[in-house]
Amino acid sequence: MYGTLLSTDPAFTEDNAYAPNSPYSASKAASDHLVNAYHHTYGLNVTTSNCSNNYGPFHFPEKLIPLVVTNILHNKALPIYGDGQQIRDWLYVEDHAYGIDLVLHSGRVGENYNIGGDNEWANIDIVKTISKLVEQEFIKNKDLATRFPNAKAAIEQNTESLITYVKDRPGHDRRYAIDATKTNNELCYQPKESFETGIAKTVAWYVNNELWWQSVMDGSYQNWIAEQYSST
Questions:
Q1: Which of 148, 150, 157, 175 could form a disulfide with 5 if both were Cys (CB 3.0 to 4.6 A apart)?
Q2: Which of 3, 4, 175, 181 is nearest to 89 (CA)?
Q3: How many angstroms separate the CA atoms of 26 and 75, rounded?
Q4: Is a pLDDT exceeding 70 seen at residue 145?
Q5: The predicted structure's pLDDT at residue 224
Q6: What stretches of the chain adopt beta strand conformation (E)?
Q7: pTM for this model (two decimals)
Q8: What CA–CA distance (Å, rounded) separates 178 from 90?
Q9: What are the structural domains of the chain?
Q10: CB of 117 closer than 8 Å to CB of 88
Q11: What's the pLDDT at 229?
């Protein structure tokens, strides 16, 4: 929602004005403005938090990190937008939930709080890191070659060969980084997971929870609603 940063710019603080560059981010900025307007006009008891990119278990498979893992397991191309040098600050999902809880219970009414991981990575480096972690999973667990027989590149320890560069998406921010100093100082917030531990947990989770992400990818998870709420 804050827009994009140059490589030499400081990370976004709560004092930065919103400057969304896509309809998607503009819709999120609009929701914050609406909430803040109700606070200032009607005294609604609100706090607002903005976070960096989340990752972890149960992440929808279309997103970068789970997409890379599942594509490797299917021996599909790993699509990289543009030159792959878009930079994001990554935050483990449980650390985000921990930060939200602090803001809700200890944050000052009407205040904005950034929740970040202080953990900037270029997209191409994220993909290469995941590739190595999946290869390590195949080394540790020989059964994976049987469970995922199509994962040829992982079995042969050559997953980076699947990397493919594709046209960049419209309105794609070059760099997005969150300065969480205010949240750290006022609420004593600190992420509990390092990126090294968090990404290893995430890759292992996807490798070992095929039933979940496969049901999302083929749409069968939607049957749950019909099964639970059918009138017949």
A1: 175
A2: 175
A3: 35
A4: yes
A5: 63
A6: 48-51, 53-55, 78-81, 87-92, 112-115, 120-122, 163-166, 175-176
A7: 0.89
A8: 9
A9: 23-219 (3.40.50.720)
A10: no
A11: 65
